[in-house]
Amino acid sequence: MTEPRTAVVLIAHGTVESLDDLPEFLANIRRGHAPPPELLAEVRRRYEAIGGRSPLLDICRDVAAKLEAKLALPVRLAMRLFHPYPAEVLADLDVDRLVVVPLAQHSAAIYAATVRAAVKDRPIEVLAANNWGQTPALTRAFADAVLAALPADADPDTTALVLTAHSLPVAVVRSGDPYETDLRASAEDVVAEVRARGGRFAEHRVCFQSQGIGTGMEWLGPELRPTLEALAAAGRKHVVVAPIGFLADHVEILYDLDIEATAWARELGIDLHRTTSLNADPGLIEALVAVTRDVLAAKAA
Questions:
Q1: Strands across the sheet with 238-242, in order?
Q2: What confidence tens digit (pLDDT) does each residue in 183-192 have?
Q3: Which residues of 194-216 are buried (b: 16+ CB within 10 A; e: fewer)?
Q4: Residue 147, strand partner residues
Q5: What mean pLDDT is predicted for residues 79-88?
Q6: Structural domain count, the chain
Q7: Vertex 277 angle, CA 162 and 181, to 5°
Q8: Computed over its alpha carbons, how large is the radius of gyration of the chain?
Q9: Which of 118, 121, 170, 176 would give a disulfide with 86, using CB separation of 3.0 to 4.6 Å?
Q10: Is 97 inside a domain boundary?
Q11: Is residue 38 a contact partner of residue 231, using CB atoms and an 8 Å limit?
Q12: Using CA atoms, how far apart are residues 236 and 226, in angstroms rounded to an integer?
């Protein structure tokens, strides 16, 4: 039997190359509803605060190139909510099988569905990674970042670790989405790995950041600011924030943490340390190789 011609599709959330594209991008996020002027102005302000452009697309392209070199398979990059969309990326790709690996490890299903919809009229088999947040190589990579960020000269009794992820509307979680459960399981794996390798801190907490602006919805918590306030009240002077729900730098990291949360911490008398994002580092590539091979092995079994 001839081996199927196989390619890998990495799919991420998306971002814009030009601030002029923000209205279309935000409308996609809002399921076709145009953003109100105040929302558009606020998001534009945040992009301008990080230099006017997110590095997400460039980082993901680098990840795709490195993964292709490791796997010796074609690897294509698509975005769920802006160009390049899966239909654009896959239009000229002549393969029998796609392996979809979402660059959102705890929200795999919705990303895979976007790729399936793009090729639904073509004779292509689509295999997809499920939640891969507890992949051992990914846990090790996040633990490496935490260990590097822990302040060496700080008293562990005044140090805390906060693990964050993007919030979701509470209604999504109540409908049965396993996002929160999966995220918390991943967080506990990272904490265990850090402690096993000598990382010392008084406590750790999981919280959720980057809630939607002006939606009127109830969002998954606890939120980051109240978490920092509680840690300050408990006498924690040093806080390491590890955004383990994100793989790469984007506005949620470069603005929400590096600008907004850093200002909150300063007000509270906290020395805030943010772990370095995995971006295209070898640890993430190792995890992506493992995830892809696991999907193919499961098909062959």
A1: 203-209, 159-166, 238-242, 271-274
A2: 999 999 999 9
A3: beeeebebbebbbbbbbbeeeee
A4: none
A5: 97
A6: 2
A7: 50
A8: 20
A9: 118
A10: yes
A11: no
A12: 14
Q: Give me the pLDDT at residue 125, please.
A: 96
Exposed/middle/buried for 223, CB within 10 Å: 0-12, 13-18, 19+? Answer: middle
pTM above threshold 0.70: yes
288 closest CA partner among 66, 77, 126 = 66
pLDDT band of 301, cuts 50, 70, 90: confident
Measured distance CA(107)–CA(277) in Å, rounded: 18
172 domain residue, yes or no: yes
Q: What are phi and psi of 20, to 5 degrees?
A: -65, -15
Q: Say if CB 37 and CB 105 are below 8 A apart.
A: no
- Asked whether residue 99 falls in the same domain as residue 205, the answer is no
Q: What is the pLDDT of residues 114-125, one digit of tens each?
A: 999 999 999 999
Q: Which CATH number characterizes residue 24's domain?
A: 3.40.50.1400
SS3 288: helix
1 occurs within a structural domain: no
What Cα–Cα distance (Å) separates residue 93 from each residue in 7, 10, 76, 96, 97? 9, 14, 9, 10, 10
- Pick the closest to residue 166 from 46, 13, 37 (CA basis): 13
Contact between residue 282 and residue 276 where contact means Cβ atoms under 8 Å apart: no
Q: What torsion do the CA atoms of 258, 261, 267, 268 make, to the nearest 10 degrees? A: -120
The whole-number pLDDT of residue 1 equals 60
